[in-house]
Amino acid sequence: MKSFESFLATQFNEFLAYRQDMGYSTRQSRSDLLLFDRYLIEKKADWDALTPSFFLQMRSEISMEAVSINKMLFTLRVFFRFLLCHNYVNQSPMQDVPLLK
User: Fold this and answer.
1) How far, in Å, CA of 17 to CA of 42, rounded?
2) What is the pLDDT of residues 67-82, one digit of tens each?
3) What is the pTM of this model?
4) 52 contact partners, CB below 8 Å, separation of at least 6
5) Given this model, what pLDDT does residue 61 score?
């Protein structure tokens, strides 16, 4: 199984363990997070880069169908709610990022 490599690797693993403990399947979430992990590495992103505009740019740069991008954005919304509840962030940068039509 491929491991996460970005600065959020620990949080990704905590999130997936939490979701699995709650009885959710994590296969799709893991796939979405791996894609986001690669994007973070490619952009050399850190905590300060995680702004709504960062996610809007990512949304426009990823070459996938709208439904697949929306699934990833949904996973990231849930992930950032997890980070918010566990005091990693003060607010979710995903709250103002709309889904694609």
Assistant:
1) 25
2) 999 999 999 999 999 9
3) 0.92
4) 93, 94, 95, 96, 97
5) 93
The dihedral through the CA atoms of 85, 86, 90, 96 has a sign that is negative
* SS3 sequence of the chain: CCCCCCCCHHHHHHHHHHHHHCCCCCHHHHHHHHHHHHHHHHCCCCHHHCCHHHHHHHHHHCCCCHHHHHHHHHHHHHHHHHHHHCCCCCCCCCCCCCCCC
Residue holding tokens 């919304």? Answer: 77
Closest by Cα among 42, 90, 98 to 73: 98
Tokens linked to 54? 């960062």
65: left (phi over 0), alpha (psi -120 to 50) or beta: beta
CA distances from 21 to 7, 18, 26 (A): 23, 5, 10
Instruction: Supply the Cα-derived Rg of the chain in whole angstroms.
Output: 13
The residue-averaged pLDDT of 1-22 equals 95
